[in-house]
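Re: weekly structure request thread

Next one in the queue (472 aa):
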Amino acid sequence: MTRPDNGLQTLSNRTFDEIQLGESASIERILTSEDIQLFALLSGGVDPDRIDQRDAASDHSQTVIAHGMWAGALIASVISSRLPGPGTVYRAQTLRFLTSAQVGDQLTILVTVSAKDSARRGLTLACTCSNQDGQPVVEGEADVIAPSERIIRKRITLPEVRISVAGDDGLERLLAHVRPLAAVRVAIVHSCDAASLSAALDARAAGLIDPVLVAPRAKLKAIAAQEGLDLSDIAIEDVPHSHAAAARAVELARDGAVEALMKGSLHTDELMAAVVASTSGLRTKRRVSHCFVLQTPRYPRPFIVTDAAINLAPTLEQKADIVRNAIDLAHVIGVAKPKVAILAAVETVSPSMPATLDAAALCKMADRGQIEGGVLDGPLAFDNAVSIAAARIKGIESQVAGQADILVVPDLESGNMLAKQLMYMGDAASAGIVLGAKVPVILTSRADSRESRIASCAIALMLAHRYRSVPP
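Done, posted below.
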């Protein structure tokens, strides 16, 4: 007889007299990377920051596996909460570890009464943990004393535990990484509000940029006086309005007087229209596209979302350039062979869903060498792209699924919503940059934090130094 788990509000036990030989209880659990990290943190045996797919790829297993005692803890949980349940006294436990449990495995933990000892209310429990294929992972035997009285307890809500893989020092580590690089001269385009003007000065103080303020001088002076900012040793290109500021900044970049552009308080369309104009001198063979570089506590590495700000409904050819630009950025920030997930609503190719057709075509282009420098897979739904467990449950075998470095969205609307959901509800730190022009364009929102603006400047610094030796 197997007891179903119906106790949603209460925990109740089985007394020795009630329990029958052959009676069993079970739970099912999907192993996640968070489970492994939390177990490592509690046990102190492994640094949880190092438990991710990057480390697994360097050994023979090529996947993330759980410590065997994690399954042993689940067995103990079944015994203490289900059979016999509250009031049980543990006397002994043996375990045999037969194979490893991998992230995404669906594990069944089963405890069965194999012997009873009336003299001491003793039970011998056969314990097994098996995966979704029925393969035994752990086997063992427990010796317990069953309770003599009925116990019913109200279930309690345990406190939420969140693992921060990257910690809260992402900006500090980024600044430390770029510290050896000399600051680059950057045109700050129409920084006629306190946020953009302060950001330019902050980036200068951080040693990232040498700013050239391209804006009406009178407006700059008024804002500086109001905010207590010192512009005495800052270069200013005096122009009458925002449109002229965009045009002049592009001229400075074309002539090599600056190595990057940074958006101030003008609208994105106004700046980018000047950058991509046929007479700008900044166009390359690539389509320009925007990349968000994001880092969230729930994902083990920084990742890129593209394009969420420039291309409204990109064609297949434009998506290919969007992918190429993102791969180039990934190389600059230190990802040698980025894993690129082409996102759609589903993970199967459907003629009625154009995003899935584009995803399949992009992957084939990569197979044929038309897109180089990364590993592509798609279509992938968002859960399959970032969760190994979700991909395994759906039977997706992929080098990209669950460990994407780049998320390529179908269109601007979906990308913008995804990125901002991650920022505002997922606590993601962000940076924004435009690639595909001859100079990087630092593209931030008026609502972006100081940290986001500084991080964007740091990434532009890396790109500008790269472009000196490898022009786009």
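Residues 1-7, 47-62 have pLDDT under 50 and may be disordered. The CA atoms of residues 88 and 146 lie 5 Å apart.
Next request, please.
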